[in-house]
Design brief:
Helix content is 27%, strand content 21%. By secondary structure, the chain is α+β, with helices and mostly antiparallel strands. The longest helix is centred in the C-terminal third of the chain and has 22 residues, at 220-241.
């Protein structure tokens, strides 16, 4: 019996399949290449500290709010609508400004805010406000705006208020009260004594232009100059004689009833006015109430002014 043996060239058997491998992603699915060190994102930079402002900028900002108040209350119709106000804080001082009395309280608030907020910043940078030189000026209403006028107007340019005309000699007008304007001026008189600085209270003294109208004497300007010198000397004297001024606080001015209606030809006068004598400026040192005498106040229009601060000389 014959057997045929078949032989063939066969491929070796496939090795057993191993665990399935995840499919290799296509080029479209390739993850983005890792950035090189040169391309690494930088950490967020620290915010830069605020740049220090110059002393000039700080000073301008400190004054801005106060001067904005003055500008907002400068409208006027008549000369009596304008009063003088000091612009002064521990870190800056400007020449006096003119504004309507309605703006006095707002101006005080703006100056107090500057003292609280702006002055520490100025002091922290060692800033010193420049000294100002101010000429003697008078508040006036011109073209509907209050301003400080450095001129010395002629007598004819200063009208006599209806309350002071000679025709009122025997028909006195109502005695005016001490209003907000007088209280503000009295506050500055008190500050003038505390700081030994008569310039702070210049506008509380009877105006020279009005004095020329009132006095029927040969040299009213010369007499006014003597009274003004005495007023300034009295402020210096009070500063030297009163203890604990650094702790004193202003409270109010009291215009007393003592005095009366002064007619023409009395006391060398050409025009009449109300006078109040031995008035009292009230202040406080701690729990102690004190008073300073304001010897003589007289009226021009509806306003009270000092002519003698201490005893008459």
């Amino acid at each position: 019996m014959w057997f045929a043996v078949l032989s063939c060239a066969c491929s070796p058997p496939e090795p057993a399949a191993s665990a399935a491998e995840p499919p290799r992603p296509s080029s479209a699915e390739e993850p983005p290449p890792r950035p090189s060190s040169a391309e690494e994102p930088e950490a967020a930079a620290e915010p830069a500290p605020p740049a220090e402002q110059s002393c000039e900028t700080l000073l301008t900002n400190a004054r801005r709010a106060a001067l904005a108040v003055v500008d907002a209350h400068a409208a006027c119709d008549f000369g009596v609508d304008c009063v003088e106000a000091a612009v002064s804080t521990p870190c800056f001082e400007d020449c006096a400004v003119a504004l309507h009395p309605r703006g006095l309280a707002a101006l005080r608030e703006a100056l107090a805010d500057a003292e609280t907020r702006s002055c520490p910043a100025l002091a922290g940078q060692g800033c010193e406000a420049p000294r100002v030189r101010c000429a003697r000026a008078t508040p006036r209403c011109q073209d509907g705006r209050c301003l400080m006028d450095e001129g010395d107007p002629a007598l004819a340019d200063v009208p006599v208020p209806p309350e002071n005309t000679a025709t009122r000699a025997d028909e006195p007008p109502a005695r005016p009260p001490a209003g907000d304007v007088e209280q503000e001026r009295a506050r500055r008189l008190f500050e003038a004594v505390v700081h030994d600085d008569p310039n702070r209270a210049q506008d509380f003294f009877f105006p020279k232009e009005a004095f020329r109208h009132v006095k029927a004497i040969a040299d009213p300007d010369g007499y006014w100059d003597r009274l003004m010198r005495r007023y300034r000397d009295d402020i210096h004297a009070l500063h030297e004689s009163i203890a604990d001024l650094d702790r004193a606080e202003f409270e109010r001015l009291e215009v007393v009833r003592r005095g009366g209606w002064v007619r023409p030809r009395e006391e060398g006068n050409a025009l009449p006015y109300w006078a109040a004598r031995h008035n009292r400026l009230h202040c406080r040192v701690g729990d102690e109430a004190r008073t300073l005498e304001v010897r003589v106040l007289i009226t021009w229009g509806s306003r009270w002014y000092v002519t003698h601060l201490s005893e008459l000389h």
